[in-house]
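We were asked to recover a plausible sequence for a given structure. The inputs and outputs are reproduced exactly as logged, with field labels preserved.

PROBLEM: sequence recovery
POSITIONS: 199
GIVEN STRUCTURE:
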C-alpha cells in the first residue's frame, strides 16, 4: 500500500480537504451553537465524520459503478459542487441550506453538512481521479486530527485569530477552492473528451 505514497500528492490532497472541510470558517457556527446551549462533542464529531468520509471514499466507487458513472464524470460534477462551496466562502452567501433535523449539534450541523457534507464526499472521490488512495487517506487522517483540535479549542482559536482573521482565512481558502474546482473540471473534462474520441 505504501509504495504509492507520494509526499507531494499527500500535501496537495491535504490542502484541498483542508479548504473543503473549512473547520476554521466553521468556528463562528460552533461558538454560536455552544452559546445556544447545544452540545458539541469534539471526539464524536471527529470520529463520525472520519468514518462517514472513509466509508464513502471506499464504497463511493462501488456506488458509482452501480449507476454506470465513471470517476471522471463524477469529478466534473464534483468540481461544480466545490465551485459553489468556494462562492459561498468568497461572497458570504448561503447556497447549501441546512434542512436536517436539529437535536444534538454534534451530528447536525457539525458532522453533516459542515464536516462530512456533499463538498467533502465529492472532493474525496474527485481526488481519487488524480491521486493514489494512500495519499488521500493520510491527508484525511491529518485533517481529522486538525478538526478535533479546532473543535476542542474553538473559543481560544477565535480569540487568537479574531473575527477579522477568521474572515480573511475563509476568503483565502475560498479562492484556493475556486482554483481547485477549475483545475478539477479542466483535467477531467479533457479525460472525458479523450475517452469519447477513443471510442
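RECOVERED SEQUENCE:
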Amino acid at each position: 500500500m505504501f509504495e504509492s505514497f507520494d509526499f507531494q500528492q499527500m500535501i496537495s490532497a491535504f490542502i484541498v480537504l483542508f479548504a473543503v472541510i473549512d473547520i476554521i470558517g466553521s468556528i463562528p457556527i460552533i461558538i454560536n451553537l455552544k452559546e445556544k446551549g447545544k452540545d458539541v462533542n469534539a471526539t464524536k464529531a471527529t470520529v463520525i465524520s472520519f468514518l462517514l468520509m472513509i466509508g464513502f471514499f471506499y464504497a463511493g466507487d462501488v456506488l458509482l459503478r452501480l449507476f454506470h458513472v465513471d470517476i471522471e464524470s463524477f469529478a466534473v460534477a464534483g468540481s461544480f459542487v466545490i465551485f459553489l462551496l468556494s462562492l459561498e466562502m468568497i461572497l458570504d452567501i448561503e447556497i447549501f441550506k441546512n434542512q436536517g433535523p436539529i437535536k444534538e449539534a454534534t451530528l447536525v450541523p457539525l458532522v453533516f453538512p459542515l464536516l462530512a457534507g456533499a463538498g467533502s464526499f465529492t472532493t474525496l472521490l474527485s481526488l481519487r481521479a488524480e491521486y493514489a488512495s494512500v495519499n488521500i487517506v493520510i491527508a484525511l487522517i491529518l485533517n481529522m486530527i486538525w478538526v478535533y483540535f479546532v473543535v476542542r479549542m474553538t473559543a481560544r482559536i477565535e480569540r487568537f485569530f479574531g473575527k477579522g482573521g477568521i474572515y480573511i482565512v475563509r476568503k483565502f481558502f475560498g479562492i484556493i477552492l475556486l482554483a481547485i474546482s477549475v483545475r478539477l473540471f479542466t483535467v477531467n473534462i479533457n479525460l472525458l473528451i479523450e475517452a469519447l474520441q477513443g471510442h
